[in-house]
Design a protein that fits this description.
Length: 297
């Protein structure tokens, strides 16, 4: 029996390193709530740098709002313990909504209640320690995430675009050469996956890197070409008649590695001929442009 060897990804290693360092730094300052440093480090070890920054914003905003309201409650409404906590939560949620900070509502409410149920003498110390230790964890994880091989899925996007381009000739052959109506849903699914990976890639930018911006523009341009190919192919499949293939487009089909059967080429005459060759011409141009890009870089 083959022995099972678990795969340990880089993100897993970085998470362990971030937690260990965050606990070490928090312990150096004599923290009594090391768990919050660990929570901060785990939260900020997101897949992309953009997600990590978003997590830091959520954590810090939630803690500041919750701690501030908690301190206010302890100062003014301590004698109305349960009713006061409920009213305080309502006001806190309304404030978050008013300030368009809905993302911070859950954490701010948790911090608020945690402070309110703490012994009166420890409430302020609890809020301060939680903020400081969480910040240590967030900062540690953010530095590690940026410094040690940040996540980069550009190669995956290039592979998906290349696979999309390689899939097109079979669909063109089915529709243009043999007059069939191929199912385009697999191509549409490929486009959706490319768009999803690009959305992730755009979140990987750290400190507005110029090279990342250029690469994003390049990949978005490739995505638009792929989408144009799909649109033109979809238009051909939506026609009741595919029309006759023009000699010019017949020659250009060799770019796709296709062999045109004898006797199907003719000068366009009918509306279907003109429209069909128009869409095919646009498809072939987009396909050629996409192929001219070096998608391995």
């Amino acid at each position: 029996m083959a022995r099972f060897v678990p795969h340990i990804g880089l993100r897993t290693v970085k998470t362990g390193l971030a937690v260990a360092l965050a606990l070490f730094f928090a312990d150096l300052r004599g923290s009594t709530s090391l768990i919050f440093a660990a929570i901060g480090a785990i939260s900020a070890m997101s897949r992309t740098v953009g997600d990590a920054f978003e997590t830091c914003r959520t954590q810090l905003t939630g803690i500041l709002l919750g701690a501030g309201f908690g301190a206010l409650f302890v100062s003014l409404l301590a004698n109305f313990r349960y009713v006061g906590i409920g009213l305080g939560l309502i006001v806190l949620i309304l404030l978050c909504v008013r300030l368009r900070l809905q993302f911070a509502v859950p954490l701010s409410c948790i911090v608020f209640v945690s402070i309110c149920v703490s012994p009166a003498g420890d409430a302020f110390q609890y809020g301060f320690n939680r903020l400081l230790d969480t910040t240590i964890g967030l900062a540690t994880a953010l530095v590690i995430n940026v410094a040690i091989k940040p996540y980069n899925n550009s190669r995956r996007i290039s592979d998906l675009l290349r696979h999309f381009q390689q899939s097109v000739p079979a669909y063109v052959s089915e529709r243009v050469l043999y007059g069939r109506y191929p199912d385009l849903s697999p191509l549409a699914a490929q486009l959706e996956r490319i768009a999803g990976e690009l959305a992730i890639f755009e979140k990987q930018r750290a400190f507005h890197s110029h090279s990342h911006i250029e690469q994003t523009v390049f990949l978005r341009g490739c995505e638009k070409l792929a989408h144009s190919i799909w649109q033109e192919l979809n238009a051909l499949c939506a026609m009741d008649e595919k029309g006759r293939l023009s000699p010019e487009n017949a020659k250009r089909l060799t770019l796709l590695g296709l062999t045109v059967p004898d006797g199907i080429c003719a000068a366009p005459q009918s509306t279907a001929d003109i429209v069909g060759n128009y869409h095919l011409d646009n498809l072939l141009r987009a396909w050629q442009f996409l192929g001219e890009f070096n998608l391995t870089e």
